[in-house]
Amino acid sequence: MNTAARTVAADRTDEGPEADPAQDAPGAQGRQVGPDAPGGPGAPEGSEAAARRRSRFGLLPRIVLAIALGILLGLVLPESIARVFTTFNGLFSGFLGFLIPLIIVGLVTPAIGELGHGAGKMLAATAGIAYLSTTLCGVFALALSLLLLPRMLQGQSISSLENPEDSAIAPYVELDIPPVFDVMTALILAFCLGIGLTLVRRGALQESFEQLRTIVVRIIEAIIIPLLPLYIFGMFLGLTLNGQIWTVIGTFLTVILLVLAMTVVVLLAQYAVAGWAMGRNPLRMLWTMLPAYATALGTSSSAATIPVTTECTKRNGVPDAIADFVVPLCATIHLAGSTLKITTFAVAIMIVTGMPLTIGPLIGFVLMLGVVMIAAPGVPGGAIMAAAGVLSSILGFGEAEVGLMIAAYIAIDSFGTATNVTGDGAIAALMARLSKGRVSGQPQTPEHPQVQGV
């Protein structure tokens, strides 16, 4: 998953004569550019030191600590103190529900518009293959989950996964925060506006949606993500008070093992295609990508891994022009590993809560998830935040189920990111085959700002 902060890149005219040519590709190596970039001219003093402090104790360790403390303190905390966290969770989930439609409009609309502007055959083909790969991984995860999880989770059942703030103890304060419009309205609106932006000349409307995206991403970075550990702490505190915690933990461990096994199968399948495309041994190609996989495991960031992914891809025989174009672009739009994780955990939660496993809505969920993942913000937990809307609107997930999805997703975040970036090398190999004899030098790119890596 895709966890470097996604920013709007500076216009090419502002880069100056010494601009790095590698930034000419969409996603430009996943680096932030411009005055707001860390360490840039307009960066706040001490921002680099703050970034280093955050990296030493990242989101995953904080989530793990929050889960552990929630379970342990749930056994001993008096009700008066537990109600404080119940109150916070109620307010936070209300704010999150208000924000989700805005996240969809703010992220999906400009993403669709940007893919259309100046999108030549190469950009369109890369985006299509990335979406196909992401969707096929989701379908594979759905099929295997429906086949195996009912047996693997047999006996682990929660008749109704109740919201901890509703079922355990009452909050001190309740605040109703209705969204501006519902999730389905937001999805349709985003698609209509995004497609419309591809049909008109770039102007103030496109720039307005790009600024809206920047605002939404900053809200996620500055408010949602920092408060997630506290929200998850309150979630597991409530589950412990409800007596539901051990079923949840058993479900998590079982599903994590299945997800890790599926990522291996997905990578083998992707590189079987890549090996055919390049006329090379697929296992050797996969082995060549190992540094990128290991880097992604350590950074949990597709964007931070772009230089390593690009170099490994070139070692597999992909032309420089193809690798420099496809890898940064796919770091933004190719989230096969993330889709696999979200689909599998969604099915698991539906099973243990007794929700009906209807094939039609599940397939629709996977297809819509592939679209939403293109616009997922590149912040820790950004993919699951973007997916929260389709989880609630299509599968009927409530606040408690979405909270568990967030915790489960982040628990194995780095493995999904590693799967994403390694698959980017396979797509680059396939694009090299499709573009054989027609590519020379650096490919042309749209002349508008691009959203950078995930």
Describe this structure in words.
The protein has 17 helices and no strands. With 454 residues, the protein is mainly alpha-helical. The longest helix has 39 residues, at 204-242. It starts with 46 loop residues before the first helix and ends in a 20-residue tail after the last helix. 69% of the residues lie in helices and 0% in strands. Helix 4 packs across helix 12 (320-333). The protein has one domain (57-434): Orthogonal Bundle (Proton glutamate symport protein). Residues 1-48 are annotated as: Disordered. Pfam families: SDF.
Write the layout of secondary structure elements.
Blueprint (H helix, E strand, L loop, with lengths): L46 H10 L2 H15 L5 H38 L4 H32 L11 H4 L15 H17 L4 H39 L2 H34 L3 H7 L1 H10 L2 H14 L4 H14 L2 H17 L6 H16 L7 H13 L4 H13 L1 H22 L20
Helix pairs in contact: 2-7, 3-6, 3-7, 3-15, 4-8, 4-12, 4-13, 4-14, 4-17, 8-9, 8-13, 8-17, 10-11, 10-17, 11-12, 11-17, 12-17, 13-14, 13-16, 13-17, 14-15, 15-16
Number of alpha- plus pi-helical segments = 17
Shape: globular
- Give the strand tally: 0
CA(first)-CA(last) distance: 7 Å
Domain unit count: 1
Mean pLDDT over the full residue set: 75
Radius of gyration: 22 Å
CATH class term? Mainly Alpha
SSE order, one letter for each helix or strand: HHHHHHHHHHHHHHHHH
Name the structural class: mainly alpha
Low-confidence stretches: 1-51, 163-168, 439-454
CATH architecture tag: Orthogonal Bundle
As for the CATH topology, it is Proton glutamate symport protein
Helix content: 55-70%
Report on the biggest sheet. Answer: none
Strand content: under 5%
